[in-house]
Amino acid sequence: MSKLRQPLTEWRVEFTRLFVGPEHLPSPPFESCYRERLEDGSFVYLMGEITLAVKNLYREVGLEVNPPQMPCHISAELEGMAIFTSIEAEAWEKDDKAALLKMTHFEQRLFGEHLAQWLPDFCKDVRTYAQSNCYQALALLTESYVKLEQARNPELFRQAEL
């Protein structure tokens, strides 16, 4: 194997080990795994109350998460934030207060009720179990995003109400 392809192969193997399986996942990328644990601390896998709550939040805004993606997967939740933020930016440009308040409300709900509740633990697991500096760095960046969003959210909502 060429030297250029080796890191990509290593990242793929690491990705599969951390997030896909087939064996025990040290860092499952699903909110429900972190928030709906069994009494023994083991992860519950998918389609519980948390998954349905996220799915219903998206539906309130007119979004659908299509199979095979799960609504409580990290990529779906972060994409939801990106979509809400994009709509929010358009509302700021158009000075559309109603749309702005609606989107900041949904951003606060998705972030506060979901992402902020599990991303710190997920990132800690990635940093703990990842062997690749790449995934450890991505976990640190994601933790920084959570901290920035926690600081930004109340101020953003206050500005939208003015």
The string of secondary-structure elements, in order, is: HHHHHH
Q: Name the beta content range.
A: under 5%
| Largest pleated sheet | none
Q: Residue-averaged pLDDT, rounded? A: 86
Work out the number of β strands: 0
What's the tally of helices? 6
Rounded Rg: 18 Å
CATH architecture: Orthogonal Bundle
Q: Would you mind describing this structure in some detail?
A:
- With 162 residues, the protein is mostly helical.
- The chain has one domain (5-161): TorD-like (Orthogonal Bundle), CATH 1.10.3480.10.
- Helix content is 72%, strand content 0%.
- It has helices at residues 5-20, 31-35, 49-61, 74-94, 97-129, 133-161.
- Helix 3 packs antiparallel against helix 5, helix 4 (74-94) runs antiparallel to helix 5 and helix 5 packs antiparallel against helix 6 (133-161).
- The longest helix is centred in the C-terminal third of the chain and has 33 residues, at 97-129.
- It is globular and about 50 Å long.
- The model has no long low-confidence stretch (mean pLDDT 86).
List the helices and strands and how they pair.
Blueprint (H helix, E strand, L loop, with lengths): L4 H16 L10 H5 L13 H13 L12 H21 L2 H33 L3 H29 L1
Please describe the structure with a list of short key phrases separated by commas or semicolons.
72% helix, mainly alpha, 6 helices, TorD-like, 162 residues
